[in-house]
Amino acid sequence: MSPIKAFLFDLDGVIVDTATYHYQAWKRLANELGFDISEEFNERLKGVSRMESLDIILAHGGLTVSDEQKAELAEQKNQWYLDLVGRMTSEDILPGVATFFSQVRKANLLTALGSVSKNAPLILERIGMSQAFDAIIDGTKISKGKPDPEVFLKGAAELEVSPAECVVFEDAVAGVEAGKRGGMFVVGIGSPDVLTQADLVAPSLDGLTVDEVLAATVA
C-alpha cells in the first residue's frame, strides 16, 4: 500500500508549455538591448526566477545595469509575456494531462501546484484548470526559487500532508532537485539523461498512469 496522499505539479513543461512564450519575450528584450539569445541558451532559464533569468541574460550580453533599470526590464519582459499568455486556452493544455488528472481524482489524491511563476493563477484561469488544484503555491507565496524546496514544502503544508506523502512532477533540473531536497518522491517529465536525480522519468503525463507512479513509490 502506497503511503502517498498528494501529487504536487510544476506548471510549465508539465501542465502547459509556456517556455516558448518566455523565450519570445526574453528574445525580444535581448534584441532591444542589442544582442540575441538562442533556444539552446533559453534552456538555462527553465525553472529559474524572472530576476535570476534577467541576470543570466544581461551577463550573456555583457551588460551591467542599475537595480532600477533591472526592475524596469523585468517588468517590460513580463508585459510582453502576459500579452502572449493572455491568448492561451484549454487547447494549450499538454496531451494526457486531463486523463491523468481524472485518474488522480478517482484515486482520492490531493493536488497542489508548485510554481515559481507569479503568473500561474492567470495561466490556470486561461486554460480552465483553477479548480483542478486543492492548493496553489506560486511566486507570490515564496521567497526562494527552485532548487530550494520551499515551493513544494509550502504545498505539502497547505494540503496538511508530510513531504514523505507527496509525489512531485517536474520537468526542470532545478525543480527535480527542489523536490528531492524537500524529501519527496520525484517524477521527472522529460529525458532521463537530463533529469538524473528523479526517482522515475516519463516523457510526459501522456500515457503515464497513477497506478504506475504509486507502484514506483513503494518499489
From TrEMBL:
<keyword id="KW-0413">Isomerase</keyword>
<dbReference type="InterPro" id="IPR036412">
    <property type="entry name" value="HAD-like_sf"/>
</dbReference>
<dbReference type="InterPro" id="IPR023198">
    <property type="entry name" value="PGP-like_dom2"/>
</dbReference>
<protein>
    <recommendedName>
        <fullName>Beta-phosphoglucomutase</fullName>
        <ecNumber>5.4.2.6</ecNumber>
    </recommendedName>
</protein>
<keyword id="KW-0597">Phosphoprotein</keyword>
<dbReference type="Pfam" id="PF00702">
    <property type="entry name" value="Hydrolase"/>
</dbReference>
<comment type="similarity">
    <text>Belongs to the HAD-like hydrolase superfamily. CbbY/CbbZ/Gph/YieH family.</text>
</comment>
<dbReference type="InterPro" id="IPR006439">
    <property type="entry name" value="HAD-SF_hydro_IA"/>
</dbReference>
<keyword id="KW-0479">Metal-binding</keyword>
<keyword id="KW-0460">Magnesium</keyword>
<dbReference type="InterPro" id="IPR010976">
    <property type="entry name" value="B-phosphoglucomutase_hydrolase"/>
</dbReference>
<dbReference type="GO" id="GO:0008801">
    <property type="term" value="F:beta-phosphoglucomutase activity"/>
</dbReference>
<dbReference type="InterPro" id="IPR010972">
    <property type="entry name" value="Beta-PGM"/>
</dbReference>
<dbReference type="InterPro" id="IPR023214">
    <property type="entry name" value="HAD_sf"/>
</dbReference>
<dbReference type="InterPro" id="IPR051600">
    <property type="entry name" value="Beta-PGM-like"/>
</dbReference>
<keyword id="KW-0119">Carbohydrate metabolism</keyword>
